[in-house]
Amino acid sequence: MSSMVQPDGAAGEWPEEVAAVRRELAEHGPPRSPDGAPDFATVTLPERDCDQVRDLLVDEGVGTVVEIGLAYAGSALAIGEALLRAGSATPRHVVIDPFQYTAYDGVGWELLCSAGLDDVAELVTEPSQQFLGRLAGVGFAADAAFVDGSHHFHNVFVDLHFLGEIVRPGGIVLLDDVWWPSVGAAAAYFETNLGWHPLPDALADGTTDPDSGRPRTRAYRLPAPPPTPDFKEFRPFC
User: Fold this and answer.
1) Which domains are delineated in the chain?
2) Among residues 58, 112, 194, 219, which is most buried (max CB within 10 A)?
């Protein structure tokens, strides 16, 4: 992607158009619910959490974001809006979801396109654990990542490993459903052993588990420069 093509209308109106699509989705749900697809309310990041993700990414001035998991595009629309508001001349949003057409019938991608974000976003329909390795191998760099893919510990761990190579030093990784033990445990390794620094104030008003009070989504800042710890320095993380 070498240039950004704006839809009809003034440039300043484009983020507002994306925000309008996002509000419509939050208020009325997706335009259709494919048979057997996961429940919209269950899998979609709540609107207030999306607002905080957008605001954090705008504050970071992101130009390139990798996202794992598209589903109904709630978080993807917030990220697209952030990329437009951050002001990069060539915003880029790499969205990875192997289930977008098999489980969701393409609804999320259609919503991104309806907001004009297909000139900013690109959809990859293969497992993130395979694609991210190739992306890292060609030296692809991003300012931030949002992770809401597989919740199996080993898959989350692999995703975070490669994102640690892809997201620039000092960049941001946002991890959804960190209240799940498998997801939280994977994140704990990178926090404990590789110096990923949690930013609790960045998403302070986000959704929490009513029983434990643990946040649904957590933001991490990657260390700069990245550490290279000796294997003898391994610290237990669970």
Assistant:
1) 11-233 (3.40.50.150)
2) 219
Look at the pTM and tell me if it is higher than 0.90: yes
CA distances from 181 to 177, 178, 184, 186, 214 (A): 9, 7, 5, 9, 11
Q: Which amino acid is at 179?
A: W
DSSP for 125-153, please give it.
-S-HHHHHHHHHHTT--EEEEEE-S--SH
Residues 85 and 91: their CA atoms lie apart, in Å, by 10
Region of 195 (left: φ > 0; alpha: ψ -120 to 50; beta: rest) is: left
Identify whether the C-beta of residue 85 lies closer than 8 Å to the C-beta of residue 54: yes
Give me the amino acid identity at 64. T
Structure tokens at 69: 């998991």
Q: What is the pLDDT along the chain (238 residues), one digit of tens a residue?
A: 334 445 544 456 899 999 999 999 999 999 998 888 899 999 999 999 999 999 999 999 999 999 999 999 999 999 999 999 999 999 999 999 999 999 999 999 999 999 999 999 999 999 999 999 999 999 999 999 999 999 999 999 999 999 999 999 999 999 999 999 999 999 999 999 999 999 989 999 899 988 888 899 999 999 998 888 888 888 888 7
Preceding peptide of 34 cis, ω within 30°: no
Backbone phi and psi for residue 235, each to the nearest 5 degrees, phi listed first: -120, 130
CA gap 71, 60 in Å, rounded: 25
- Site of tokens 């649904």: 216
